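S1.2 Input.
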Amino acid sequence: MAHPIVYGPASSPYVWSVRLALAEKGVVHRLVPVEFGREREEPHLSRQPFAKVPAFEHEGFNLYETQAILRYIDERFSGPALQSEDVYEWSRMNQMIGIHDAYAYPAIGARILRNRISPPLPAKNFAEEANAAALEMARHCLGEIERLMGEGPFLAGSEMSLADCMLFPLLSSFARVGEGREIFAERARLSEWLGRIDARPSVALTRPEP
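S1.3 Output.
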């Protein structure tokens, strides 16, 4: 069986989510780096016509969109299941993945973390207002995620799931910056979850260089 190929920069939270799921399943894969900015050029546009990362290939089958890739990985490969057979846990998993894509990533990844590596917007007042709104949304997202995770050790129950794979890369990056440290200090159970996932062998295998 050919090893899957993941296309994208190792530092992308979405790329890391895919690699984390592969490692959890025990699947050896190959990472083909795509430098930031090069996703808008060929050959990557042929793999992902919307100029996003990651793109994925396995035995001639090409796929993009992280949620679709994660579900392919869980259903295509043997190893520990990353989707519960319990309909409530499965639904909660999908709900948290939706929170990540619709609310958490736009606020945390696209605004707060990006401002750490890119200059602020030229209109200073607008930038400050936008950053304040992003921080408020980030606080709201972490509070809701902690509320939804229930009593289990993982986000959607007693076992690691695709929700953990999706949210850990973004939230672990956020926890390393000042705004994130402040919010996580208020969220003991979510902080414990973060440490629990961080200690997993799959994270050690796939963690991007700082």
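S1.4 Remarks. The CA atoms of residues 92 and 148 lie 8 Å apart.
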